[in-house]
C-alpha cells in the first residue's frame, strides 16, 4: 500500500458518511457499560450533567481545529466568547493546518506514558483520522450520547450522525456539522455546467485545461474518484461491502477508462495536480480553471464575498446527487480538561450555536440538528432569507449519496497512485 | 575575572548536552519506528518490512533523484552567482547597493518567497499578466507546466533566489577575515583583471570560510519541504515532501514507512554532501595549475557580465515575488489578465491586523530568546576552542549540525515524546529550546570560521600589554567580531521566526506565532491573507538584518578599522 495524504484540511471534512448502521443499539449498550468505568477513571459521571458543568468551570479547553478559514476561525472565537460568559470556560482555538499534527501529539503523549495530562482537549475530526484514533484507543468515550443536546439530532431518525466514513462512531465523537460535495463554475465562461460525470468528460473535451481535481489522496481528490466510480459503475451494491469481497479490477475498470480519457483534457494535461481543495479554489480565482468543486457547500459564496472567486461564480450539485458527510468533535483519551471539553461539545450542539453556524453570513455550515426536535422559536432562527447568487439553492443538498465502504477508498487511492502518481 | 576561563570551558559541554539529548531523542523517534518499533501504534517487533514497502514505492527513484538534483544544482548555481558577482563588483558601488538590498531579501521566509515566485511565473502570474492580453494574445491563462515541472526547475529557481542572498551575506561577513581587500589590491597591482584577480587571489581563501554555509544550503535544499510543496513537481514529489505526506497520512501505519523514508532522506542529504565534497577535491586538484599559471585575464568581461546579469535576475525575481505579495495583500477581486489589482483594498489588512499583536510579540520574544541562547553557547564554545588551542571534536560538530540534515518532520515526533517524558510543559520554554536546536547550528556555522580565523596577533599584542584572557575576550576579540556576531544573530533570528512545526508541536499549539498563523491560514488558500502574513513574517527578520548592518556602524564609529580590517 503506498498511500500518501496531503497537507490539506484532512481534519475538517475528511471522509464521509454512510447509512450502513446497525449501530444505534450498539452505541447505547456501549455507553451503558462504559459509564461506571468512566466515573472511576476520570471522576466524571456522564449521567450527572450538573456535576460536569460545575467541574468545567474555570477550565481552559484547548481545541485543536483546522485554522485555514477565517470565517470558521471567527465562528470559533464567537463560541469562545459564549462559553466564557455562560460557563466560565476559556476556550483556546489551536489552529492547525492539518489535523494529523494533533493526532501526532496524542500518539507521542501515549508513547511517552502521559495518560491523563494531555495537551489537547478537543479535536475537530472525521473520517480516516477518527477511524485511526479510535482503532488505536486514542479517544475518550463513549460520551456523545450523554450530551444533553445530543437528543436534538434525533439520531435514530438521522443515522448519519452516528456513522463517520461508514465507521460507527459508537459515541466517541459528537456530530457538529454537515458537508456535501458541491461543484462551482464561472458563469461568465461556462453557460451550462456538466450535470454528470459523463457530461463532465464532454465538457472537458471542449474546454481543455479548465478542469482538474486535487492530487489523490487529498480527501477532495479521493472524493472525486468515489463520485466518479459511483456514477460510472453499473452496479453500486458492491461498493458498500468490503472491497475484498468483490472484483476490484472489474468494477473499477470503467473508472480508469474514464480517467485515461479525461486526463489529457485536464489542467496541465493531467501531469500536475493542485495539492488540495483550497489550491483548486485559488486556481479558479486566477482564472486557470472554469469549473471546480468543494466539500463545503457555503465555500464558493463566501469566497466571492472575500474576493477570492469571480463575482460570476455559481454553485450546483450533480443531477444524480453527490457524496456528503458529517464532521465531528472528539476528545483525546488523555485530555486534561474533559469536563470543559464535554460542556463545549454540548454547547456546539445547542440550537443557538448551530443556527449561528448555519447563518451564511457567519459560516454557512449546515446543522446536524433535526428541525422537528426544536421549538418553533428555535426553528425560525435556522431560516435563511438571504439571496446570494453564488450560493447553492436550498433544496440542492437533499441529493446526498452515501459513502462507499472505507476499504474502497484505500484501494482506489493506491491504484490511482500506481497509475498516475509516477508519470 | 578568575572565573572566566572555567566558565567558558564548561560552555561546550553545556551546548553538547543541550543538543545531543534532543538530537538523540529525535533520532531514536525516527529510527525505532523505521525498524517497526512503536508500541503506541501496535509496533511491537523489529522488522524490515517497512523498508521493503518503501523500496517498492512507485517513483521512489525519481523522488531521490529530485531531492539530490535540487540540493546540488541550487547550491552550485547560487554559489556561482555569488562568486561571479563578488568577482565582478567587489569594491564597487553596486556591491554597496546590493548589500543594502540584501537584508529585506534575506528576511523573506522560504515559503513566502516560493509563493511569490509561483505567482510571478505561473501561467496566471504577474509575468504572464504583464504580457496579456497584448502582446501574448491570452485572454485566459495559458496552460503550461511551470512551476511544478517534472525536472524540478521551478523548485531550483525558488531555492536559488533564497540562497543567493544567504551566501552573499555569509561571504560579505567572511571577506574581511580573509584579507580580501589586500589580496585583491595586490593581485590587481600585478596586472590581474578584476574577476581573475578575485578568482585566483581571494576565492581560495574565501571558500573555506563559507564552506559550512554552503553545506547548510545543500542540506536545506535537498531536504526542504515548504518550497518543494509550492514549486516542485507532484507526480512524484521530491522525497522530503513524500515523507511529510506519509507522516500526515490518516492511516497511522504509514508512519512506520514515513520513518524509514526519513532515514532515507537523511542518507540522500548526506550523499549530496558527499558528492559536493568530492567535487571540491576535484576542483581543487584541477585548478592548481590554473591558479599559479600567471594568466592575468580569462574571459573577464564575459564572467563579469554573467555575474552581473545573474545577480540582477535573482534580485529581480525575488523583488518581483515580493512585489506580488504586496499587491496581493492589497487586492480585492483581481482577475486575469489585469496586471494591477484595482481598486486597491485594505480588506485583508483590516481583517488580519487586530489578530497580529499577540503573534508578533510571541515571535519576537521567542526569536530573541532562542537567538540569545544560541549566540551565548556558540561564542562560548568557540572561545573555549580558542582557550584550549584545539578545535571541536568531529563528533561534537556532527551533533551540532544533525538538526540541519535530519528532516524535521520525522525528527520532531521523537522530540515531542522526549518533551512529554521529561515533563517539560508545552509552552514558551519548550519552544525556545526546540528553536535553539535549529537556530544554534545556523548561528554556529555563520560565526565559526570568522571566529576561528581571527588573526591571533591582535590578542597576542594585547596580551603582551598585560591583559587577562577575560579582558582579551571582552575588549579585543568581541569588538573585532562585532560584524560577524551580529550577522550570525540576524541569521539565527530569521531561522527562529520561520519555524513552524517545532513551534506548533512543542507548545501543543498554545503559542501562536506569525508563522503558525501564516501556515494555518495558507492552508485555506486565500492568497490575500497569506500575503499579509508573509509580509509580517518578513518584517521582523528584516529588522534584525537591518540592525546587524547598522549597529556596527553606530557602535564602531570610532573604530572604523574593525569594520574593514
Automatic annotation (TrEMBL), chain A:
Signal peptide: 1-39
NCBIfam families per the UniProt record, alphabetical: PRK11622.1
Official protein name in the record: Putative thiamine transport system substrate-binding protein
InterPro entries to which the protein is assigned, alphabetical: SBP (IPR006059), YnjB (IPR027020)
Keywords: Signal
Transmembrane regions listed in the UniProt entry: none
Keyword Manganese among record annotations: no
Entry keyword GTP-binding: no
From TrEMBL, chain B:
Domain (ABC transmembrane type-1) ranges: 64-276, 360-551
Gene3D superfamilies: MetI-like
A Pfam family recorded for this sequence: BPD_transp_1
Protein family according to the UniProt entry: Belongs to the binding-protein-dependent transport system permease family.
TM helices/strands, residue ranges: 66-89, 101-122, 151-175, 212-232, 252-278, 302-334, 363-382, 394-416, 428-448, 478-501, 531-551
Full protein name: Putative thiamine transport system permease protein
One cellular component term from this protein's GO annotations in UniProt: plasma membrane
Subcellular location: Cell membrane
Membrane topology: Multi-pass membrane protein
PANTHER family to which the protein is assigned, alphabetical: INNER MEMBRANE ABC TRANSPORTER PERMEASE PROTEIN YNJC, MOLYBDENUM TRANSPORT SYSTEM PERMEASE PROTEIN MODB
GO BP of this protein: transmembrane transport
PROSITE patterns in UniProt: ABC_TM1
Amino acid at each position: 500500500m503506498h498511500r500518501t495524504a496531503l497537507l490539506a484540511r484532512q481534519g475538517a471534512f475528511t471522509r464521509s458518511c454512510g447509512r450502513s448502521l446497525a449501530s444505534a443499539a450498539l452505541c447505547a449498550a456501549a455507553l451503558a457499560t462504559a459509564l461506571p468505568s468512566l466515573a472511576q477513571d476520570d471522576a466524571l459521571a456522564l449521567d450527572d450533567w450538573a456535576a460536569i458543568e460545575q467541574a468545567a468551570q474555570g477550565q481552559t479547553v484547548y481545541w485543536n481545529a483546522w485554522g485555514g478559514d477565517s470565517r470558521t476561525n471567527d465562528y470559533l472565537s464567537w463560541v469562545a466568547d459564549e462559553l466564557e460568559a455562560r460557563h466560565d470556560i476559556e476556550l483556546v482555538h489551536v489552529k492547525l493546518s492539518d489535523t494529523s499534527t494533533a493526532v501526532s501529539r496524542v500518539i507521542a503523549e501515549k508513547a511517552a506514558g502521559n495518560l491523563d495530562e494531555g495537551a489537547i482537549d478537543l479535536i475537530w475530526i472525521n473520517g480516516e483520522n477518527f477511524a485511526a484514533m479510535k482503532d488505536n484507543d486514542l479517544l475518550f468515550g463513549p460520551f456523545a450520547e450523554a450530551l444533553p443536546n445530543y437528543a436534538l439530532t434525533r439520531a435514530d431518525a438521522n443515522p448519519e450522525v452516528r456513522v463517520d466514513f461508514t465507521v460507527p462512531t459508537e459515541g466517541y465523537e459528537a456530530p457538529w456539522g454537515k458537508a456535501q460535495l458541491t461543484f462551482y463554475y464561472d458563469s461568465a465562461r461556462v453557460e451550462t455546467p456538466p450535470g454528470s460525470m459523463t457530461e463532465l468528460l464532454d465538457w472537458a473535451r471542449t474546454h481543455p485545461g479548465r478542469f482538474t481535481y486535487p492530487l489523490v489522496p487529498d480527501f477532495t481528490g479521493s472524493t472525486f474518484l468515489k463520485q466518479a466510480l459511483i456514477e460510472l459503475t453499473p452496479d453500486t451494491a458492491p461498493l458498500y461491502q468490503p472491497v475484498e469481497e468483490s472484483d476490484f479490477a472489474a468494477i473499477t475498470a470503467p473508472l480508469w477508462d474514464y480517467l485515461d480519457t479525461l486526463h489529457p483534457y485536464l489542467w496541465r494535461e493531467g501531469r500536475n495536480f493542485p495539492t488540495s481543495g483550497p489550491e483548486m479554489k485559488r486556481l479558479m480565482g486566477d482564472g486557470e480553471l472554469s469549473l471546480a468543486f468543494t466539500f463545503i457547500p457555503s465555500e464558493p459564496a463566501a469566497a466571492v464575498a472575500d474576493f477570492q472567486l469571480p463575482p460570476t461564480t455559481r454553485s450546483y450539485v450533480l443531477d444524480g446527487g453527490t457524496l456528503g458527510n458529517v464532521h465531528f468533535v472528539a476528545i483525546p483519551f488523555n485530555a486534561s480538561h474533559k469536563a470543559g471539553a464535554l460542556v463545549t461539545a454540548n454547547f456546539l450542539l445547542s440550537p443557538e450555536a448551530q443556527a449561528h453556524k448555519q447563518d451564511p453570513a457567519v459560516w454557512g455550515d449546515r446543522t446536524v440538528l433535526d428541525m422537528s426536535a426544536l421549538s418553533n422559536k428555535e426553528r425560525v432562527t435556522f431560516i435563511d432569507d438571504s439571496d446570494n447568487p453564488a450560493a447553492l439553492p436550498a433544496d440542492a443538498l437533499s441529493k446526498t449519496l452515501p459513502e462507499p465502504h472505507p476499504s474502497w477508498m484505500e484501494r482506489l487511492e493506491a491504484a490511482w497512485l500506481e497509475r498516475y502518481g509516477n508519470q | 575575572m578568575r572565573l572566566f576561563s572555567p566558565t567558558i570551558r564548561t560552555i561546550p559541554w553545556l551546548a553538547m548536552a543541550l543538543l545531543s539529548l534532543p538530537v538523540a531523542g529525535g533520532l531514536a523517534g525516527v529510527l525505532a519506528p523505521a525498524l517497526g518499533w512503536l508500541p503506541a501504534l501496535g509496533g511491537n517487533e523489529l522488522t524490515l518490512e517497512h523498508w521493503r514497502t518503501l523500496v517498492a514505492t512507485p517513483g521512489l527513484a525519481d523522488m531521490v533523484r529530485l531531492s539530490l538534483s535540487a540540493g546540488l544544482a541550487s547550491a552550485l548555481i547560487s554559489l556561482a552567482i555569488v562568486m561571479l558577482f563578488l568577482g565582478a563588483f567587489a569594491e564597487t558601488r553596486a556591491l554597496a547597493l546590493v548589500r543594502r538590498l540584501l537584508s529585506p531579501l534575506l528576511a523573506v521566509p522560504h515559503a513566502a518567497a516560493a509563493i511569490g515566485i509561483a505567482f510571478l511565473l505561473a501561467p496566471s502570474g504577474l509575468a504572464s499578466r504583464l504580457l496579456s492580453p497584448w502582446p501574448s494574445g491570452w485572454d485566459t491563462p495559458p496552460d503550461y507546466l511551470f512551476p511544478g515541472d517534472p525536472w524540478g526547475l521551478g523548485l531550483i529557481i525558488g531555492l536559488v533566489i533564497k540562497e543567493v542572498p544567504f551566501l552573499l551575506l555569509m561571504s560579505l561577513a567572511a571577506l574581511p577575515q580573509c584579507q580580501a581587500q589586500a589580496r585583491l589590491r595586490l593581485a590587481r597591482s600585478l596586472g590581474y583583471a578584476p574577476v581573475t584577480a578575485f578568482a585566483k587571489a581571494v576565492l581560495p581563501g574565501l571558500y573555506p570560510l563559507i564552506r559550512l554555509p554552503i553545506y547548510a544550503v545543500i542540506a536545506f535544499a535537498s531536504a526542504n519541504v515548504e518550497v518543494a510543496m509550492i514549486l516542485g513537481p507532484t507526480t512524484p514529489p521530491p522525497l522530503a515532501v513524500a515523507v511529510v505526506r506519509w507522516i500526515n497520512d490518516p492511516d497511522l501505519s504509514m508512519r512506520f514507512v514515513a520513518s524509514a523514508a526519513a532515514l532515507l532522506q537523511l542518507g540522500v542529504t548526506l550523499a549530496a554532501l558527499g558528492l559536493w565534497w568530492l567535487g571540491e577535491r576535484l576542483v581543487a586538484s584541477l585548478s592548481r595549475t590554473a591558479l599559479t599559471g600567471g594568466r592575468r585575464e580569462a574571459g573577464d568581461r564575459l564572467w563579469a557580465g554573467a555575474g552581473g546579469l545573474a545577480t540582477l535576475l535573482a534580485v529581480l525575481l525575488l523583488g518581483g515575488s515580493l512585489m506580488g505579495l504586496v499587491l496581493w495583500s492589497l487586492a480585492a477581486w483581481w482577475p486575469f489578465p489585469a496586471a494591477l489589482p484595482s481598486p486597491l483594498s485594505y480588506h485583508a489588512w483590516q481583517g488580519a491586523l487586530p489578530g497580529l499583536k499577540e503573534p508578533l510579540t510571541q515571535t519576537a520574544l521567542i526569536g530573541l530568546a532562542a537567538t540569545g541562547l544560541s549566540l551565548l553557547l556558540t561564542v562560548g564554545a568557540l572561545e573555549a576552542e580558542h582557550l584550549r588551542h584545539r578545535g571541536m571534536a568531529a563528533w561534537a560538530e556532527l551533533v551540532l549540525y544533525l538538526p540541519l540534515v535530519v528532516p524535521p518532520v520525522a525528527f520532531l515526533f521523537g522530540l515531542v515524546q522526549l518533551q512529554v517524558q521529561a515533563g517539560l510543559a508545552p509552552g514558551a520554554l519548550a519552544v525556545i529550546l526546540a528553536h535553539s536546536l535549529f537556530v544554534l547550528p545556523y548561528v554556529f556555522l555563520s560565526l565559526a570560521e570568522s571566529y576561528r580565523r581571527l588573526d591571533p596577533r591582535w590578542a597576542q599584542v594585547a596580551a603582551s600589554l598585560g591583559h587577562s584572557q577575560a579582558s582579551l575576550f571582552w575588549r579585543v576579540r568581541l569588538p573585532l567580531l562585532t560584524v560577524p556576531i551580529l550577522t550570525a544573530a540576524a541569521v539565527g533570528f530569521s531561522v527562529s521566526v520561520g519555524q513552524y512545526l517545532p513551534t506548533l508541536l512543542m507548545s501543543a499549539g498554545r503559542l501562536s506565532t506569525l508563522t503558525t498563523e501564516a501556515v494555518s491560514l495558507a492552508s485555506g488558500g486565500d492568497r490575500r491573507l497569506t500575503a499579509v502574513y508573509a509580509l509580517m513574517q518578513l518584517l521582523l527578520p528584516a529588522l534584525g538584518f537591518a540592525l546587524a548592518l547598522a549597529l556596527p556602524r553606530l557602535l564602531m564609529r570610532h573604530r572604523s578599522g574593525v569594520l574593514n580590517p
